[in-house]
Amino acid sequence: MTFVNYSASIAQSKGRAPIRAEDTAALRGLRLFDGIAEATFADLIAAGYLQFFPPGVTLIRERDPADFLHVVIEGTVELYAGSGGRETTMEFIRPVGAFILAAVLSDQIYLQSARTLTRARILMIPAERVRHWMAQDAGFMRMIVAELARGYRQAIKALKNQKLRTGAERLANWLITQSALQGTPGYVDLDIEKRVLAARLGMTPENLSRALASLAIHGVHSRGALIEIKDPAALAGFAKPDPLVDAPE
Question: Which domains does the chain have, with CATH numbers?
Answer without folding.
Answer: 8-162 (2.60.120.10), 165-246 (1.10.10.10)
